[in-house]
């Protein structure tokens, strides 16, 4: 049974309750204080599952463009990429830019690539930090803002949003065990928060003709599992995923096992806003009225903001 | 007396202690868990100063480009702007992009303006939300990621960083009172955290020939005060500012008083990472050993991450 009538009903409820603050264009709404308390509670509840000694890494919204290119993301998902351009001109270009601003024209003609892009998944900022020989299988907890250019009126499909993830770097066996174990851990986490979740094989929006083949391969391989909720009447909504990458990122960044072979990597995380919205759709827009166990699991009620 | 020998000593200490995680280019280092706990503690300590009923707004790193243009920032500080470009091509452009990737060339030739830029100051996302008639003077608390393209080896000069601010919208008198009062409140907050701070008139990096005039006007007007610490031997380092904008943003976004005249605005906030680094330089790299009152003010020691 779906939780809400549709996108516009959900968007209206979230905005009406002050959880989303309408932006000037789709996908960049601001957030109110209760929403932020749920966001904080969610990543902390996930961070609490970290084994002792887990490295913790927090990143801003950017990644070095050469590292981003090495992930192969621009090839598979060009339509989602956000590239950052900057102005390196002098007084003449500045005068021309001002002329464009004054005339109400596009003023970005004098901008050029910065060497940075917005990052579409938090784990991309982790792999390059492990270039070289990996002494032992390692699991990292990380979080950051992310960007995917798929503007939509659907309030769960944001352009800018946050992800928190565990990233594993290890052997073929340790990476596959991680993918399976953390899928169960995520299902357990979400069920503990009262969400009616199910695991499915993932179906990413690979681009174009080549992309249709890549998407079919992904479905067949079972290397990526999504966790979804029954938010809307006409489709399930993914809130989380657990992925094994085999040697993809290890090959890109030169992450080797002690025997010289490439490491295997895997990651398991969730879109924090998506889970927050699933909770609001499930337990109601009044966070103060959520069930006690859910509020305690998210440490709600202690914060002033 | 300066706190550290210089930029490279500070950078080395911060990285050595795991507070900064070196990025592939200047200004986009990641952050370790103790650093993040200090960041969280700082914005919460500032949020605690909010009068009852203060609206709270959290934003991602982006702003609508038309709203950004209306702030006049591209005219005054083009060299700091980060503009976001996206790919709207089809299969032929995708093939060409893949060709560029494979040849190791710049692959951004098929990208075009997204209609979004990175936001350089959190308050820019607040003003447009008050377009129209302001019923009474209003103060808002806000926080977000920000971007200013001034890559540097100086660890306090980040390209991506966080700001938290109070923003005031009101009358000429209420805005001027806000600027003066919140300057004192910020000084009090920082002194309570053991920082040796001083207030100065601000000196922003306005661009080019026109910019030198604007900078002189800013110094003379006293409309912007900075709060600085004695971090390095050769200069003071700004960590915070309190600004009165007169009718600048009200004119840009059509924010009017009940009598039909333009509102006056002001804002008072700080660069969260800069204050965190000032605290680390003052109290030492081992956050567990900071003075008890500072740890309590920042609610340190309760978090697992």
Automatic annotation (TrEMBL), chains A, B:
It comes from the Bacteria. Residues 146-291 form the Aminoacyl-transfer RNA synthetases class-II family profile domain. Keywords: Ligase. InterPro entries: aa-tRNA-synth_II, aa-tRNA-synth_II/BPL/LPL. SUPFAM superfamilies: Class II aaRS and biotin synthetases. The keyword Ligase applies. One of its GO terms (molecular function) is ligase activity. This is tRNA ligase class II core domain protein. It comes from Propionibacterium acidifaciens F0233. The lineage of its organism: Bacteria, Bacillati, Actinomycetota, Actinomycetes, Propionibacteriales.
């Amino acid at each position: 049974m779906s939780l809400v009538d549709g996108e516009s009903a959900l968007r209206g409820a979230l905005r009406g309750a002050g959880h989303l603050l309408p932006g000037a264009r789709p996908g960049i709404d601001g957030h109110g204080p209760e929403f932020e308390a749920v966001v904080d509670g969610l990543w902390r509840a996930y961070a609490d599952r970290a084994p002792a000694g887990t490295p913790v890494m927090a990143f801003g919204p950017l990644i070095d463009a050469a590292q981003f290119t090495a992930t192969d993301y621009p090839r598979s998902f060009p339509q989602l990429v956000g590239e950052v351009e900057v102005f390196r001109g002098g007084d003449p270009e500045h005068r021309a830019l001002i002329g464009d601003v004054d005339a109400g024209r596009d003023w970005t003609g004098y901008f050029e690539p910065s060497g940075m892009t917005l990052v579409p998944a938090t784990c991309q900022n982790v792999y390059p930090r492990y270039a070289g020989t990996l002494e032992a299988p390692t699991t990292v907890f990380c979080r950051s803002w992310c960007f995917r250019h798929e503007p939509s009126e659907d309030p769960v499909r944001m352009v800018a949003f946050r992800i928190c993830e565990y990233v594993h770097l290890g052997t073929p066996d340790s990476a596959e065990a991680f993918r399976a174990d953390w899928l169960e851990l995520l299902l357990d986490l979400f069920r503990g928060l009262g969400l009616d979740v199910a695991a499915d094989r993932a179906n990413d929006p690979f681009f174009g003709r080549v992309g249709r083949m890549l998407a079919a391969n992904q479905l067949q391989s079972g290397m990526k599992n999504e966790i979804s909720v029954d938010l809307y009447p006409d489709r399930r909504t993914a809130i989380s995923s657990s992925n094994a990458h085999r040697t993809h990122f290890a090959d890109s960044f030169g992450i080797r096992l002690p025997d010289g072979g490439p490491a295997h990597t895997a990651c398991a995380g969730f879109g924090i806003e998506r889970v927050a919205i699933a909770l609001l759709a499930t337990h109601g827009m009044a966070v103060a009225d959520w069930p006690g166990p859910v509020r305690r699991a998210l440490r709600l009620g202690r914060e002033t903001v």
